Amino acid sequence: MGAYILRRLLLMIPTLLGIMAISFAVIQFAPGGPIEQVIANLTGEGGTALDRVGGGGSEVGSADAGGSSYRGAQGLDPQFIAQLEAQFGFDRPPLERFARMIWDYARFDFGESYFRDITVIDLVLEKMPVSISLGLWLTLISYGISIPLGIRKAVKDGSAFDIWTSGIIIVAYAIPGFLFAILLMVLFAGGSFFDWFPLRGLVSENWQELSWPERILDYFWHLTLPLTAMVLSAFATTTLLTKNSFLDEIRKQYVVTARSKGLSDGQVLYGHVFRNAMLIIIAGFPGAFISAFFTGALLIETIFSLDGLGLLGFRSVLDRDYPVVFATLYIFSLIGLIVSLLSDLMYTWIDPRIDFDRRDV
Fold first, then answer.
1. Distance CA 164, CA 359 (A)
2. Cα separation of 148 and 36, whole Å?
3. Mean pLDDT rounded to a whole number for the chain
């Protein structure tokens, strides 16, 4: 197992380099850039509000038109344009900028946002409470629904219950989350019908003044509609996976043997089948949580005014805030690779018969 872990850790290095290199190359051909954002803001042509014209951080990005020729720069002092290039780090060749970025990131130095007087790490930590709330509760609720429902569907395979629940799951999976979110807003958030739930934010403005029980209620009051919109389709895949896993185990010989010994259906199901059937479900839990946490429900966050990591990434791309774009890409890619390794290790913890040392990576 030690050799397998070492190989996986070593493979993370070229994987991260490949992800960052491809993303960096794509950015070089993307229209617009931080310097053009500044120029548009100075000339009154831009739609992005910039808090400051700042430098600092890892110098990454693209000088769009090459040299000091930027769209909308006519009439501006060439020396001012040159100063902007030096401030953002675009006076260096692309390979040098990329090498410097990777060196900084290897030391977990992610620099500062171009347009906000804050480090990238602090900016990410500022947005994490929203993403943690959505990711954690989405995963727990979806698993809480999927596993009991999947077991019940396996036990009642082919029955009326199995058929109509499958129909509900398919319909729920097909409904876009953002469309259902808008429907919930119209119905329950002060639209045309009821005004039962808040429309904005993770907590109320007077949250600090509330008692602890009131804070907990306020927190879940704000999360009810976003989580309902996200959970609608989140449990479909896990439910069907749980059902199929249990069906495979129920049909095996050891289940017939257990029943022949006089064990009840409950004893067979939860004493023998459950552990083997839940192997793939439990082992996939870390990946499912990280996926829900870091994927970022951009549309849900936008609709309910939840300022999380999904919305941060989207706005950073629009603003061409490259330190934030590349730093979050690097952090999330690294976490994803580590969680993938942890998921494999959970297989061996749950079922010691699995030995990754005997297979090729």
1. 42
2. 54
3. 79
Residue range 103-149, pLDDT digits in tens: 999 988 888 888 888 899 999 888 888 888 888 888 888 888 888 99
pTM higher than 0.90: no
Residues ≥6 apart with Cβ < 8 Å to 268: 255, 258, 259
Going by pLDDT thresholds of 50, 70 and 90, the confidence category of residue 351 is low
Helices (H) and strands (E) in the chain, counts: 16, 0
DSSP state of 152: H
Cα–Cα distance, 19 to 325 (Å, whole number): 13
Q: Is the dihedral of CA 68, 73, 77, 82 positive or negative?
A: negative
Long-range own/partner contacts, residues 117-123 (CB < 8 A, 24 or more apart): 117/51, 117/52, 117/54, 119/57, 120/57, 120/323, 120/324, 120/327, 120/328, 121/327, 123/312, 123/324
Q: List the Cα angle 355/359/361 in 5-degree steps.
A: 115
User: What are the Cα distances from residue 122, in Å, to 111, 118, 119, 167, 327?
Assistant: 10, 7, 5, 45, 12
pLDDT tens for 299-340 read 788 888 888 887 888 888 888 888 898 998 898 888 888 888
* Distance in angstroms (rounded) separating the CA atoms of residues 262 and 232: 40
Q: Compute φ and ψ for 203, nearest 5 degrees.
A: -140, 170
CA distance 143 to 354: 24
